[in-house]
Amino acid sequence: MLFTGKTRFLLGLLMLLFVVPAVSIAQDTPTSTEILWDTWGVPHIYAPDNEGLFYGLGWAQAQNHGDLILELYGQARGRAAEYWGEDYLADDQLTRTLGVSQDAEAQYAVLSDEWRGYLESFVAGINDYAAEHADQIVDEREAVLPIVPTDIIAHGIRVLRWTFTAGRGVAAASQWADSEISLSGSNAWAIAPSRSANGNAMLVANPHQPWSSAGLWIEAHLIAPGVNVYGAALVGGPTLGIAFNEHLGWTHTVNTHDGWDLYELTVSDDGSTYLYDGEQVAFETSDETILVKQADGTLMETPITVRRSVHGPILAQRDDGSAIAIRAVGANSFAAAQEWWEMGLAQNFEEFQAAVSNVRIPMFTMMYADQDGNIMHLFNEIIPRRSEGDWDFWNNTTLLDASNPAILPGDTSTYVWDEADHLSFDELPKLINPESGWLQNANEPPWTMTYPYEIDAADYPAYVSPAPYVWPRPITSMRLLYDDESITFDELVEYKHSTFIELTNWVLDDLIAAARESESGVVLQAADVLAAWDRQANADSVGAVLFVAWANAYISPNGFASFSTPWDYNDPLNTPRGLADPEAAVAALEEVAD
Fold first, then answer.
1. Mean pLDDT in residue range 545-568
2. 248-253 and 365-370 as β-strands: parallel, antiparallel, unpaired?
């Protein structure tokens, strides 16, 4: 088998504990890098050393997703409009404004010789594949070649720092966002031996990333002396971000992190300075020229002026003359790739904790399990120590609503934090081997990671994460794991694939009852459809389509105010319940059913 040991893992929808390998492979150390593709299109990369693994992963990514990664690297350079035209101009303007290329050069300059070698091997794999299989690369994408190591670092900065970590802040300030990236998903479960029927720890990895653009995963298996890691990397990245080896495994979910802040600056009439601690401070400015490819192949010059304050890049200028700056953690985004690599090399819980203890990955919940039966939920994030205030003061967003983020006064240094002074690993919310025997996260704050609760928000700074709140997905996870005191592996698979809609527990009985009081034939017919429905979201389910349409019409605009009994932190599995406004709920049902 490709994975041995007592722990069994799920990676998304694919069972990674293969009973029969797709190919038979000798276990002797290879003298050169070899890639064997299984029947699912997963590369199993055998190499004599780490450089060979990085080379093979670069080659495999170019073979599987060559056109995409070249596009992403072109965007990370801030030169996509030069290669492919005006549709990419706004993206280039933002990339230049954020200083992605300059930061990539700075990060590369301080890399160790070892990691420079790994990156050089990775890009060599990409370039060699493109050279030997030019017919497999779209002509327009070849303009990016050859790839260089700083392209990989720049791509990581653009995706990890400015899309995942600070994407909401960037979008709020500049009205820009990568529509291909969704940050609202992912589930993760860890089951301890005390809760599993077979006495082994189990881990479920269920990331909800899109099947396109920078959010796409590439699955891979890396084998070299001292390395046997299977998992997935975000496309274009050089290391596996969700993975397992013979001894342990981990997964991630997007967490309720505050790795960015927006600041409003008072700008002088001529726009050259801003007010800061009672003084006028000059903006750092640089003039850049973006080349834009025209339909006839010529290049048009588009000049831009990039401005920075002590807070960070200036993303917007308001009509009243004020400016909006953004400050974000993850200044050394490539350190996250290094941390993921070290996590994959860990042989036990102690080594894994050592790998993550420096907190180099700027965000993501981390869920862990190992062959010794340890499980852990770590609310991983680079959290700067802030001078005062709670979550609403600094951020004022939830995963469900980022429409009105906090904007801090930029005229004072009081609210300007130093990324280097962040909460340590020991200070982060975490739970190791809970008494309950299970852990879960579905993107909600960390306070509901298990039940009965074993972690208290009051023990942490108020700016770490929002106060406890949930929605149907985490309640589904909690209910499934809480109700089963002896979970078999097959049950875990079944729970992962459950199509039951938790929201029906909250309101469906009341909705049907209220609808049957109506005199509308449309409403009565809708009530019959809902009453006959099995509450599953299956492909042929008319009831599911009707219920979700109704929920979008009635619940989505009103949120938790839709329910007569609100969610109760002390009774999380039985609340919320009921309809706050049955008449409006029935009217919404009639509207969507008509």
1. 96
2. antiparallel
What's the CATH number of domain 503-593, 1.10.1400.10, 3.30.1330.10, 3.30.540.10, 3.40.50.1400?
1.10.1400.10
Question: In angstroms, rounded to a whole number, what is the distance separating the alpha carbons of residues 27 and 540?
Answer: 47
Distance CA 7, CA 361 (A): 25
Distance, in Å, from the CA atom of 159 to the CA atom of 76, rounded to the nearest integer, reads 9
Cα 489 from Cα 507, distance rounded (Å): 31
DSSP track, 261-286:
EEEEE-B-TTSSEEEETTEEEEPEEE
Exposed e or buried b per residue across 362-378, where buried means at least 16 C-beta atoms within 10 angstroms of its C-beta: bbbbbbbbbbebbbbbb
Among 514, 496, 501, 506, residue whose Cα is nearest residue 584: 514
Among the listed ranges 8-17, 30-39, 478-487, 553-562, which one has the minimum average pLDDT value?
8-17
Q: Residue 139 contacts by C-beta under 8 Å, 6 or more apart in sequence?
A: none
Orientation of helix 503-515 relative to helix 542-554, angle to 10°: 90
| Cis preceding-peptide flag for 474 (omega within 30 of 0) | no
- List pLDDT tens digits, range 155-191: 999 999 999 999 989 988 865 334 344 445 799 999 9
Q: In this structure, what token pair is assigned to residue 587?
A: 């009217």
Give the whole-angstrom CA distance, residue 252 versus residue 241. Answer: 8
For 117, the token pair is 């070698």
229 membership: H or E segment, kind and range = strand 227-234
The per-residue pLDDT for range 335-369, each reduced to its tens digit, is: 999 999 999 999 999 999 999 999 999 999 999 99
Alpha-helix residue ranges (DSSP H) falling in 327-403:
334-345, 349-356, 391-394
Dihedrals phi, psi of 134, to nearest 5 degrees: -60, -30
Contact (Cβ atoms closer than 8 angstroms) between residue 203 and residue 7: yes
- Would you tell me how many other CB atoms lie within 10 Å of the CB of residue 414? 12
- Reported as type and span, the H/E element at residue 224 is strand 217-224
The answer for 225, left when phi > 0, alpha when psi is -120 to 50, beta otherwise, is: beta
What are the residue boundaries of the structural domains of the chain, listed by start?
503-593
Q: What is the pLDDT of residues 407-438, one digit of tens each?
A: 999 999 999 999 999 999 999 999 999 999 99
Q: Tell me if 264 sits within 8 A of 409, measured CB to CB.
A: yes
pTM metric for this prediction:
0.92
Other Cβ atoms less than 10 A from the Cβ of 558: the count is 13
Residue pLDDT, tens place only, 243-298: 999 999 999 999 999 999 999 999 999 999 999 999 999 999 999 999 999 999 99
pLDDT at 4 over 80: no
Question: Which candidate, 443, 341, 42, places its Cα nearest to that of 217?
Answer: 42
How many Å from the N-terminal Cα to the C-terminal Cα in the chain? 55
> How many CB atoms sit inside 10 A of residue 46's CB?
22
Largest CA distance in the chain: 79
